[in-house]
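Re-running protein-glutamate O-methyltransferase to confirm reproducibility after the cluster update. Everything else is unchanged from the original entry.
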Amino acid sequence: MIENGLVELSRMIYQYCGLNYTDRLMTLREKISKRVKELNLTYWEYGKYLKMSPLEWDHLIEILTINETYFYREEHQLNECCSNVLPKLKEEIHTRPIRIWSAACSTGEEPYTLAMLIQETKKFPPGSVQIIGTDINKKVLEKAKNAWYHNSSFAFRRIPKVLMKKYFVEQDGGYKIIKNIRDMVEFHHLNLLEADRFAPIGEVDIIFCRNVLIYFDQETTKKVIRNLYQKLTPGGYLFLGHAESITDLDLGFQKIDSDKTFYYRKELKQHEEVRYISR
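Result of re-run:
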């Protein structure tokens, strides 16, 4: 029999971060039972504990979020961004750096891959592209900031050898990303549902938010996409995972189909021209 306390926990989690366990209560129980037992609490008591000890949310998020990622993931999108989108933006932007936001960046593989590929183009001098990585999970952000990955990590399973050789150094049984690539990326803790805390991100020209929406229901998806929309400059670009689509949601984006992938562009209103801000 499902405990009422577990139902209440699923509601609290949904409100906090959009993860919907309301119809997957047994899955939620499997994920959190160990933590609840460690604290010697019932599910009802754990819900009260979250309200009294907000830092416990950090621990719970570590348990609930899936952080499976790797370098050079969904390479067609990465190549489209670096080969086509960035050169277009470079032609149009002259007064400030191009800004890319890797939302839900996990342990940093996505933003660092973008930094490496941008470096490979040899078209963008230092400081001309800024990359921001954010995640709701503070633990994975610390790993991202450290930029060290164990040599047996699955994170390396798709990365070309040329990138490994140029942008990593062996260190303590693993590989650390070199400094000039690390310097291209800054990291922030962020919940994509809390738009009132987006100020440190500033306006951005490109957003990568891949393989995140698959964990949300339609209502939460709309809220997240609206929040991202507000941070994009007019005409800015949004990359989602291949299994994710917002085409039918009428959220102000135009779908762009390229040879091997698709992505979205923030639609311009009739009276609106592409504008670029100075920072």
